[in-house]
Every structure is written in C-alpha cells, then in structure tokens.
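Entry — protein

Goal — fold tokens:
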Amino acid sequence: MLVVFCTSCDKLSFSKNTNLQILDTIVDFTSVDFSPSFKICDAIIDKEQMATCFRNTIHQKIGKELQKQYLTVKDSIDEVIYVYVLINSKGEIIFDETATSENIKQQIPRLDSILKESVKNLPNINPAIKRGIPVSIKYRLPIRILLKD
C-alpha cells in the first residue's frame, strides 16, 4: 500500500491525450498580416511590395491634392511634416492629426484643414488584415513641404 501512495499518478498508465493542439494565444498588436491596399495594388501578391504600393499611392494622391492649392509664404519652406491617419476596419481613411513645426503653423495656418480635405477625398480601400479579420490601423505619413517665396 505504501508503494502505491509514494508513486505519483502521472507514472501510472491512464489514458492521456498526447495529441493536444497548442493554441497560439499570443497576438502581436504592432503588425498586421496584410497592410491596407488600394484597388490598383490588389494584384500584387508579395506582402512587402503591396505595402510599398499602398504607401506610394497614398503619397501620390495626397500630393496631387496639395499641389492643387495655391499657397503664399513669406520665407521659403523645406520641411517634413507627419500626417497621422486612421484606416478603420471598413476601409475608410480618417484624418487624425499632423505634427508640424511652429514655422509651418505660422506661415500656413490652414494646412491642417487642407490636409483634412485631401484625406477626405481619398477613396475607400481594402482594410488591413490580422489573422483573417479586418482591423483598424494608424499610419504616420511623412510629407515634404517645399515652398519658395
């Protein structure tokens, strides 16, 4: 009797299921499986090239909108600003905020409203995908402002 109590139960041969499937419960919230994409980027299969296509397309579209504007400045400007946009799980692009210098804020006080309108004119896109589910994502877009007096 003492021998039975001294041995542990896991050494006894009960039916164990050794084929348990381990679930991946750790989710990396800093990346997505597939980045958002415009319709012209849908044919690209490579993940890196699709992300590059998206970045280039969004820069071109916002750049075209900015070039339509007539802006006058006192001093020349050659700076990079950052535009933060939220792309929700429905593929809608929403202007969030800009990070600009005081110089740009003083010389182009309506830049935020111009950028907001430019982002508003962008078409809906395919949202980012994480584990097969459309997710919201926030992008920081660098935009170079080059204006000569």
